[in-house]
Amino acid sequence: MTGRDGSGTDGTTTPTDGRATATADVDRSDPAYRAWLKEAVRKVQADANRSADTHLLLFPLPERWGIDLYLKDESTHPTGSLKHRLARSLFLYGLCNGWIRPGAPVIEASSGSTAVSEAYFAKLIGVPFIAVMPRTTSAEKCRLIEFHGGRCHFVDDSRKLYEESAELAARTGGHYMDQFTYAERATDWRGNNNIAESIYQQLRLERYPVPAWIVATAGTGGTSATIGRYVHYMQYDTRICVPDPENSCFFDGWTRHDAQACSERGSRIEGIGRPRMEPSFVPGAIDRMMKVPDAASVAAVRALERAIGRKAGGSTGTGLWSALKIVAEMVAEGRKGSVVTLLCDPGDRYLDKYYSDTWLAGQGLDIAPYTETLDRFLENGVWPD
Length: 385
Hints:
Belongs to the cysteine synthase/cystathionine beta-synthase family. Cds1 subfamily. This protein is an alpha/beta fold. About 40% of the residues lie in helices and about 15% in strands.
């Protein structure tokens, strides 16, 4: 319930964006709270200061093509995924806005990796953390959330993640982090060592320092928004491609300019694809989208292991499939240059899914035709029609 002045009878206020945030239990002028806040911000910033930059790996392509393909290896973050950057930004944003308070839980709607990273930062500053996740989330991700001191709260319908998270925050007096709304604004897209600035710094001594394309999959849409904005801000000629898995609405929403596009089912590729057009998905920052079959994503992630000896999650496969398709177009047109995609998280989180033939069979996924496409392309440079 909400009173006439906007304050709820449970001691919450309802901001204009409709998100309930508990405020009555904190005096923000209290020296003890100010000291806690300063220490919490220091700890989160210190995490970034301790962390070296992530590697830019080279995917082997025939030298005669004159094209370099790189993977930005985000799996080397302390919590093992691209979402470590996002979680750090979201915690700083929530702390500096006064939304995260001592003793009050942080709640997040997540398919796994963001929750792992947010559990880490919650433990770092000493607040409880609850992840609201689909029941199908991999067991390894659940283990990691609990390892970092978080608690898993499961829902059977992934479309209800947002509603359940907001309700849980209201019941507990906690803060709903809401990555899907705040991802695009919590990160400084102008620089400050964001992922885009890091990519260009690492490419500066390569033969093609300004990539023709950067391929970034979308879960919240925050990463593609950050990279696209940075490219425009720095006046680079790089184009941004966002691949979209099955059972996700982003491709349809982008191609039809439909902000109300939706999907009736959740994505099988954990961490990317959404059933609704998320507030952090910024269509104007994107130059191109591709729809990628889930079987192609799995085929690509297994091809990655054969090529560089590294297992990665399904979202990496979605991006790699699209990046290789772009490379094929460049080869066909006789263009040279570089392409960058992301290695989002490690494959050991998905051994019971994308690396399990039993799981593939249960999902009705046949990766053989897509594996053949990749093998033939890497051998002769021709992408089958």
